[in-house]
Design brief:
alpha+beta; 60s Ribosomal Protein L30, Chain: A; Phosphoribosyl-aminoimidazole Synthetase, Chain A, domain 2
Length: 333
Amino acid sequence: MSQDAYTEAGVSQSGADASVAALVAHLGKIDTGKPSRVVPLPGHYASVLRIDATTGIAFGTDGVGTKMVVAERLGRLETIGIDCIAMNVNDLICVGAEPIALVDFILCPTADPELSGAIGEGLRRGAEIAGIEIPGGEIAQVGDVVNGLELAGSAIGIVDLDAIVTGAAIAAGDAVIGLPSSGLHSNGYTLARKALEGIALDDERLGRPLGDVLLEPTEIYVRPILELLDSDVDVRGLAHITGDGLNNLLRLGRGVGYEISEPLPVPPVFELIAAEGGIGDGEMHEVFNMGCGFCVTVPEADLDAALVLLRAHYPAARRIGTVTDRAGVVSRG
């Protein structure tokens, strides 16, 4: 594959960025005739609306994407709901919110009770891990639009307005802690499938069937992060590492950069994708989480206390880098 293998595989990040900009150009002009409830958090993982003088509602929406293609091909949809929950609640906690509920949306050619039941199993399991409810949802039968399944959701959470984690307090010298991912999570599957298309899903060179590796559910970081937020640790930034890799850190405070000097170990599945697809290291780190699914930024003085709490859940958690004064730059040592 070429340098921009993801674009060749069918996903253009620059196109996505331009499309978002085109949408926002109009949405930003909405005039409701009353004061806005939106808390300004440009570029963050979730949006927050003021409900009253002290309380905010955080909300966001996301889907499973082309990981569904692998699940359908294997006829195994019982874990894909976990991914849907994870992709939403992991974003909500980045603003310091406690997720409380999600509604799901299934897009399909025709409704199938057996498939819906399998998806429901994963949604239930994911909801229990995240500690949220699923009070409703929607199934849309649109055979003229799609020939496969898509699963997405919209989640809400609550946050005290004076406790929103904006990233604004991040300063040069702060420590960046990495929490391990469980695998690919739910990003980059278009490129991963293209790179691995010559390998059977029952291939066991990774120690278990490739299909099992690709369907490993996305880690849900809610409970450990809420525990950290309830502690005395000064949590200055929280980043869900999805598409764009560690560049997601730049969605936090302005005027700073990040030096990643001790990255978490890269799981073998990423090495296989790179080798089979001829994908360069730079693009791999721009598309995939490369073994780090979530980052926490704390002052140097709070690093040890934060690691004690986080290692109770993730023994492999460690400091992976430091905040720098090189604004907008993420470098890997």
